[in-house]
Amino acid sequence: MTTSVLQVLDRKGHHVETVPEETPVDEIARLLSTRHIGGVPVTDRAGTLQGLVSERTLVTVLTRQEADFGHLLARDVMMRNVPVAALDDDIAIVARRMTDCRTRHVPVLEGGAIVGLVSIGDLVKFRLDEAAARITSLQHYITSDEAPGSRAT
């Protein structure tokens, strides 16, 4: 049984923060901190995905730029050629894409528009919740009077 990105977003929520290419890096750092998110897609004036800035990106830039950090913009530091997902993509394939590209966040696109953002944590949480529900269902099945081989008294 496959699980789609849409199913994850339906549970997690479809809202996604984005920032324009001209956003100062210190503003992005505040956004990530206050919203408790690990990455934010970067868009051009038309709202088209141009890249992604993550916590990892900021740490890397901070260690390389030090004094100039405050003068940098999203377009200066963003990861370009970001892997993306579609709503009907299987999450196992998306997780593999994330692993191969060494990224923890993937924007979800529909018709070129950003309609969500999934993280590797979102995918793991969804799988763990699914497993817990299956375990509960199986335990109920095994202990119920309707299990094959059980005898009603």
From TrEMBL:
Record PANTHER family: CBS DOMAIN-CONTAINING PROTEIN, CBS DOMAIN-CONTAINING PROTEIN CBSX3, MITOCHONDRIAL
Matching PROSITE patterns: CBS
The name this protein goes by in its record: CBS domain-containing protein
Keywords: CBS domain
Pfam families (UniProt xref): CBS
Membrane-traversing stretches: none
Family annotation (InterPro entries): CBS_dom, CBS_dom_sf, Diverse_CBS-Domain
Region forming the signal peptide: none
Superkingdom of the organism of origin: Bacteria
Positions of the CBS domain: 9-69, 78-133
